[in-house]
Amino acid sequence: MKPATFEYHAPTSAEEAVGLLADLDDAKALAGGQSLVPMLALRLAVFENLVDLRRVDELRGIETRDGSVWIGAGTTQATIGRSESIGLNVPLLARATPLIGHLQIRSRGTIGGSIAHADASAEYPAVALALDVELDALSPRGRRTIPAAEFFTGTWSTELEEDELLTGITFPVWQGRAGFAVEEFARRHGDFAMAGACVAVGVGADGRIDRCAISLFGLGPCARRATEVETELIGTSPADSDADEIGRTAMAGLDSVPTDLHGSASYRKRVGAAMVARAWRRALQEAVGD
Amino acid sequence: MSGSQQATDTDRYAGRRVKRVEDARLLTGRGTFVDDVVRPGMLHVNFVRSPIARARITGIDISEALALDGVYAVLTAADINPYVHEQWFSLEGRHAPDTPRPPLAEGEVRHVGDPVAMIIAQDRYVAEDAAELVIVDYDPLPPVVDYATAFDSSELVHEAYPGNLVGQIGGRPMADLAPTFDNAPHVVSETYHQQAYCAMPMETRGIVTEWSPSDGTMTIWTATQSPHEVRGFCARLLAIPEHSVRVVMRDTGGGFGQKVLPLREDMCLMIAATKVPAPLKWIEDRQEHLLAAGQARHEHGEARMAFDDDGRILAATIDHVQDAGAYPSPNPVGSGIAVGLIFPGPYRIPEGTFNSRFAFSNTSGRVAYRGPWQFESVARECLLDVAARQIGIDPVELRRKNMLRRDELPTANCNGMPYSDITPLETFEQALEILDYDAFRREQEQARAAGRYIGVGTCTYVEPTAGASALYGTEGATIRVEPSGKVNVYVAGGSCGNSLETTVIQLTADALGVDIADVSSIQGDTAVTPFGGGTGGSRSGPMTAGAVNQTATELRGRILALAAHLLGGVPVDEVEFTRGVASVKGSPEKQVTLAEIADTAYFKSGSLPAELSVGLEVSGRFRAQHLMLWANATHVCTCEVDIVTGEVKLLRYIVSEDCGPMINPNVVEGQIFGGTVQGIGGALYEELAYDDAGNPVTTTFMDYLLPTAAEVPTIELGHVETPSIGPGGYKGVGEGGAIGAPPAVINAVADALAPFGVRISRLPLTPATIVNLLEEAAQRGAAGAAAAAGAARTAVAG
Ligand SMILES: Cc1cc2nc3c(=O)[nH]c(=O)nc-3n(C[C@H](O)[C@H](O)[C@H](O)COP(=O)(O)OP(=O)(O)OC[C@H]3O[C@@H](n4cnc5c(N)ncnc54)[C@H](O)[C@@H]3O)c2cc1C
User: Which CATH code for domain A177-288?
Assistant: First the structure.
């Protein structure tokens, strides 16, 4: 369990970092190392060059902007967990954070690493997807912004190019009556979830559901939205919603649900349905405010 | 020591929560584990391991690996295996039937992880690079993955063992009991399948071997429970004199049975050290540990019990099969017999028998694991709960009816095990009282009405400890009062968390009558400590106590004789000696300290009469008078099951145990906590799993799940202290936690799910397994209801 030899680079700007990623052979960005380092140690991944982002200050920070919150990709999960502004403005992100591993992992692991790594069972990609965040990317070809809906493309794969860096994530702040919940089931405290769901729901002046997002994790090659249920729910009255039914519908027709030692696809769907239902109840209760 | 001179009970250190002397160094990161040992010029070893469960090796090309910078040698079976002279364990004896155990795979690989070649390089990084460059040609063979069908397989793990049968052992023929079972009002049976899991010490295996060609001596630093076993083994392996081998262990970060015996990699390091001009270090990484440090617990058995109308047990049998893996250490038949022998447990069972068979498979070899026979408790205690439900009696009542009472002791169980000094019923009642069993049953009823499923499970067991087998029936100690009056006590050691250092100084201070601050202990170095079996079989407490008591008694006699002389020639029986100070009875003003006595013994020998011996040092060897010392305990667990996800949440966990008088309650409780958590892991989380092709699928801690502090509730303890016939009345307490926990947890889950008619027979109880059980029960229930409805219709029609 020792990694193969690599060259270590520690640039101090994002420009420099993407330059290195573009110019060096077989180069990979290193953030908190909580996913990459174990893979290197097990030699599941081998890279000739590692470009460490720890000295790139511009990648860190939490800024409240007009109607949104910007978080630098290099900001640690622990910093996010401690941020009052995020607790207030992006409650879903705040609530998902303690579910990531353990404190020691969150002290190193970054939001950018988590989203770029795009593990199927990770919380942050599902939060990003539910909240329709915007992802800022930088490459030698310049900057671009990728909407969350286009970012996650499959198992551990994203829209990012090999020489492209995720620099920041912009979270919209939901106004009005809204509720947020994340529920997951893991074998042990701190394990990656076997199945989980994020719910964000808004209730309009007429008392009907006017915004609704349900995202799933651990239930496919990467985080996914339950768009069909969402559409059905818009315009309905909270009193009419049947959480268990919503859970079942969200699972209906889901393909590529993983099977492993810890549970079959059908088990994961059963649990997924329950997680959606539980998250829905909590989020809705918060939105209608009783 | 004579009664009048003995310190009063309240003065004794034994029985007190003396702070562990190890803790200061361990908690400040100053422990010395094998990886902390660095020798001049030391090189690092890494093994090339088989990626295939079974294959013929048709070629090994080491040239590329050898050419890599920093690689000094690449050794294969041809370089190592011919140098095995004798290969047997002191624990088992020279003539015990043994199973194959080559250092490196020769001709055929027999499990994924089987060591094929050994890289010696400047560091572990290069050694791992080199391992990727060794080209091994494998001609795959069909593996025997499932031990349960191994007897019928036409493929053989080892050619010399037809039907893959390692061995078989049993009691009277099962057929003898047919009349009892045929005529019993109630017969209950179930086949339980336990998954493979094993010891996961924080410190993996590891060894440093240093050969000195100039004088033909070998020094070994290793993570072991038994330094003297390693020494004897190495001497025989290399055919060098035993006194030319020195084995040193300071701290071992957990053993749990796995580190009692040197295994195949250790042999490689011992032999290779004599071939290369440098000390060698191998530190097992976690992945290797999960591939090749062995497995345990993998077994199944059909348990049967017959009951009379009142729920009294008439007979009990178990037909048991155990997985030996490819290269078990030791031969599993010897310890496997205990499953059958102890299956009757703490119950009054007039008749019974057992049968155990052991199967080779192309998986990691079986090794000892804390309570290696624990399947007896799983099968018995789970079956008793099934019986209670079937007969329609509360499981606690059923046990009360059948459990042995004090006034029935001593007695022998129906398979011949002689029980004495046990208190199963006392621990059972104590644990239930801590829980408030009746209150729990009321709470359970209310919970069920509200759609919540909580349950309670118990396990009561008896456990043979400190087994004084013919080979390890003695234990030695050397105690030295140094010229300054400070005391050193030397015992074999092998402490791996069980705190032998602390308990030994407590016992020594008591037995000599000195202040504990004046006693220190030296352990784990075969060059200076007396021969001993080390940690294993819950033997350290009683056996070491025997050695220390016997040795200290003689030394105390010498101290008193010298004191009597220094106090003016008073008769020895008028001398009092406590906390290192001697005085004459009745005139406490006249005193002489141990420091003064020692000073005289070493430096003023000329002033002493000839009949007084000089120096203050005694070596003694305790010879056990017992065959084994029985300990017992009851575990009680409550849980809640989420019937949607199948998640089990433990609510309360209670252990009431009787290990005799406790030398140090902190140490005893630490042993119980640790074992219990391992047992909880076995019931709910841990599994060393293989796929159908024999590939391990749990090769990191991502998939091999250990319970953490977050999964385990506070463990509440009760103690009953009944002296054994052994030294000090002590009994062993090392293993029981790991025995009692799985059945208590399984029974709690089964009780929670009783309303659904769930029957548990396969472990571990993962959430997905529980959901499956619920679904199966629902189908059975639906089918049953349909059948009942059909029967009703027929009845109406008829
Ligand atoms: C025991 C354990 C338990 C865990 N449990 C959970 C859990 O429950 N839930 C969960 O979500 N995660 C869990 N994790 C993973 C953890 O959250 C990781 O921190 C995270 O997945 C990756 O973040 P990182 O900063 O450590 O990235 P790294 O490991 O350094 O990198 C991961 C990948 O992202 C790429 N990357 C990193 N930053 C950028 C960037 N700015 N731009 C482009 N690419 C980038 C890297 O090149 C690499 O491919 C666990 C980890 C451990 C060790």
Answer: 3.30.390.50
Q: Report the nearest atom of ligand 1 relative to the CA of A39.
A: 29
Is the full-model pTM beyond 0.90?
A: yes
Indicate whether this complex's ipTM tops 0.85. yes
* CB-CB contact of A193 with A123 (8 Å): yes
pLDDT digits (tens, 9 = 90+) for B288-340: 999 999 999 999 999 999 999 999 999 999 999 999 999 999 999 988 999 99
Q: Which of A99, A271, A278 to mutate to test the interface with B (most CBs of B within 10 A)?
A: A271
Q: Domain range spanning residue B12? A: 2-31+475-622
**Is residue B68 domain-shared with residue B93, that is, in the same domain?**
yes
Q: Which tens digits make up the pLDDT trace of B409-466?
A: 999 999 999 999 999 999 999 999 999 999 999 999 999 999 999 999 999 999 999 8
Whether A185 sits inside 8 A of B700 (CB atoms) is no
b/e per residue, A173-206, with b = 16+ CB within 10 A?
bbeebbbbbbbbbbbeebbbbbbbbbbbbbbeee
Give chain B's domain count.
4
DSSP chain A: --PPP-EEE--SSHHHHHHHHHHSTTEEEESS-TTHHHHHHTTSS--SEEEE-TT-GGG--EEEETTEEEEETT-BHHHHHH-HHHHHH-HHHHHHGGGSS-HHHHTT-BHHHHHHHT-TT-HHHHHHHHTT-EEEEEETTEEEEEEHHHHEEETTEES--TT-EEEEEEEEPPPSEEEEEEEEE-SSTTSPPSEEEEEEEEE-TTSSEEEEEEEEESSSSS-EE-HHHHHHHTT--GGG--HHHHHHHHHTT------BTTB-HHHHHHHHHHHHHHHHHHHHHHHHT-
Pairwise CA distance, residues B539 & A148, whole Å: 62
Protein residue whose Cα sits closest to atom 43 of ligand 1: A165
Q: Is B180 part of a structural domain of the chain?
A: no
Q: CB–CB of A185 and B685 under 8 A? A: no
- List the structure tokens of B407: 């006034």
Task: Give me the half-sphere count of Cα atoms (radius 13 Å) on the Cβ side of residue B98.
Answer: 16
Q: How far is A278 from chain B (nearest CA, A)?
A: 11
3-state secondary structure of B187: strand
Nearest-CA neighbor of A215 among A137, A138, A290, A151? A151
Please give the CATH architecture assigned to the domain spanning A7-52.
2-Layer Sandwich (3.30)
Distant-in-sequence, close-in-space partners of B754: CB < 8 Å, separation ≥ 6: B389, B455
Ordered by start, the domain boundaries in chain A are 7-52, 57-172, 177-288
Residue B685 is given by DSSP the state I
Nearest residue to B188 (alpha-carbon basis) of B341, B306, B93, B27: B306
Cα distance between residue B37 and residue B251, in whole Å: 11
Maximum distance among all alpha carbons in chain B?
113
Residues 6+ apart with CB under 8 A from B109: B50, B52, B53, B54, B55, B57, B116, B138
Asked whether residue B155 is assigned to any structural domain, the reply reads no
**Whether residue B685 is found in the same domain as residue B610:** no
DSSP reduced 3-state for B436: coil
Question: Is A247 near chain B, with CB under 8 Å?
Answer: no
Confirm whether B190 is domain-assigned. Answer: no
